[in-house]
Amino acid sequence: MEITRIAIHQVDLPLKEGAYSWSTQSFAAFDSTVLIIETDSGLTGVGEICPLGPSYLPAYAEGARVGLAQIAQGLIGEDPLQIGRINQTMDALLKGHPYVKSAIDMACWDLLGKATGQPVYNLLGGLLQEEVTLFKVISRQDPAAMAGKLADYQQQGFRQFQMKVGADAGEDIERILAVSEVLQAGNVLAADANTGWKQHEAIRVVKAVRDVDIYIEQPCLSYEECLAVRRHTDHPFILDECMDDPRVLMRGFQDSAMDVVNLKVSRVGGLTRARQFRDLCATLGITMTIEDTWGGEIATAAIAHLAHSTPQGFHFQSSAFHEYHSVQIADGGPVIKDGYMVASSAPGLGVTPDIAVLGKPVAVIGR
Ligand code: MG
Predict the structure, then answer these.
(1) pTM for the complete prediction?
(2) For the residues of 160-206, what is the DSSP string, one character each?
(3) Tens digits of per-residue pLDDT, 74-104?
């Protein structure tokens, strides 16, 4: 099989609730990029990359599209089913920029599934869990509003929650205390600062909420600051933004720096490298949140396939991003019910992009 043409689409994903706020940032919509790979076989593969705004990670939406256009010409004529070779070629064409490569890698897995008649989860290790536990994000607002949201989400069947903090440490203490009051038996709550606290602020917060049953997620920017906070708390601890490479994962394992790792597909460069990261975590006994920086039905399908093929005991929770939007960009996205999602069992990722919604491609590379 040969890649003949690569089309890059841009689409805005507006938020049903009007805004999504974390740490000191807030957005009304996210800018997503959908990539469609055409082949000489007639099969097409689809991938998606949606950075969480331009200053969350070293990734931004326009950068994804410029980077894809940079790489795409060098992939025309390559066999998309040779995914290791595709990754090697991408690394030779562009150093770094794993998020750019994620969309191409994802589309190649979609093609491999379609070519072999298998859902991607079968190719990533098999169906190790029938349904994928979801968490619902409680966007940063005032404490009472966040507590109200948690109660609404409980009514929708969610049992696991991640509340956004990381703005003002004093207010964040109030937020955590207010939201934790609404928790029911069996609920799980994480307070995610998304790198927003300075080390001294994070230490204040963990001390003030010592008796609350809560996970603390990525309090500070660097691995070293997070490790210092970890050593001042007995809360279960999640590392996310700083876990961008297997080397830092190994360091975290050696330092006992975290109990859970948040694995984001695009941050590590796609499903191929996320699978490697996932398998390393499971081997080391580290439980994972499996998600991405954001996305619609396509990126969420990739998350769901990776999570389905992860041992249940090492899967903490995942995000179903398409649930947060007022537009649908593809058919066949994971089905959400009672706090779980289930990926399509159709070959590949099981999603069909809606070209009427995506519009004309912003760039087309190939024959
Ligand atoms: Mg996080």
Answers:
(1) 0.97
(2) EEEEE--S-HHHHHHHHHHHHTT--TT-EEEEE-TT-S-HHHHHHHH
(3) 999 999 999 999 999 999 999 999 999 999 9
